[in-house]
TrEMBL record:
InterPro entries xrefs: ClpP/crotonase-like_dom_sf, ECH_dom, HIBYL-CoA-H
Residues covered by the Enoyl-CoA hydratase/isomerase domain: 50-161
Keywords: Hydrolase
EC primary class: hydrolase
UniProt cross-references to CDD domains, sorted A to Z: crotonase-like
A GO molecular function held by the record: 3-hydroxyisobutyryl-CoA hydrolase activity
Organism name: Amorphochlora amoebiformis
Descriptive protein name: 3-hydroxyisobutyryl-CoA hydrolase
GO cellular component, one term: mitochondrion
Enzyme Commission number(s) of this protein: 3.1.2.4
Catalytic activity: 3-hydroxy-2-methylpropanoyl-CoA + H2O = 3-hydroxy-2-methylpropanoate + CoA + H(+)
Source superkingdom: Eukaryota
Pfam families: ECH_2
GO biological process, one term: L-valine catabolic process
Length: 165
């Protein structure tokens, strides 16, 4: 189906979409992931970063691998005083992020992973949420909530000093 956007917002959404197409210029400075990776980092020449949650078949649900890739990236940006904008989107047309991948945790538990190890995922995810929620003024995160956004997706997107669209 089509997304209905009130007239007053339609222009703003169109402008934002146009800016994302050329976010930081059309030249990519550093592409750090293959299209099959679960998180894509596309650093632009001006230092801005496009972050794509890339598990559309799983509604971009967060798993341990994604959290393990996102956390050190955010920590490196915290250590850098450069002013940059981070734009986070979900791949596909159905979801930004449906939350933590509970199915993966359940499957791991069935295969013998201890409850303590299963809880480690949530500890790591909450640490990432805390980092995002305390971003310094030189870092701005824009989250494009392009569909389903629940649980861990809310943690990635709405904490701290950011604009969520």
């Amino acid at each position: 189906g089509k997304l209905w956007i009130p007239g007053a917002m339609a222009g703003r959404v169109a402008r934002i979409a146009a800016q994302l197409r050329t976010f930081g210029g059309s030249r990519t400075f550093c592409s750090m992931a293959a299209a099959t990776d679960d998180v894509l980092f596309d650093e632009k020449a001006n230092g801005n970063m496009l972050i794509t949650l890339n598990r559309p078949k799983a509604l971009n649900a967060l798993d341990a691998s994604m959290v393990a890739k996102l956390t050190p990236k955010y920590k490196s940006w915290l250590a850098d005083s450069a002013k940059r904008t981070l734009v986070m989107v979900g791949a596909g047309s159905k979801a930004f992020c449906a939350g933590g991948d509970i199915k993966a945790i359940y499957d791991a538990k069935k295969k013998g992973l201890s409850a303590k190890k299963c809880c480690t995922f949530f500890e790591n995810e909450y640490e990432l949420n805390q980092i995002i929620g305390t971003l310094p003024p030189n870092l701005t995160q824009v989250s494009i909530l392009n569909g389903i956004t629940m649980g861990g997706g809310v943690g990635l997107s709405v904490h701290g000093k950011k604009l969520d669209i």
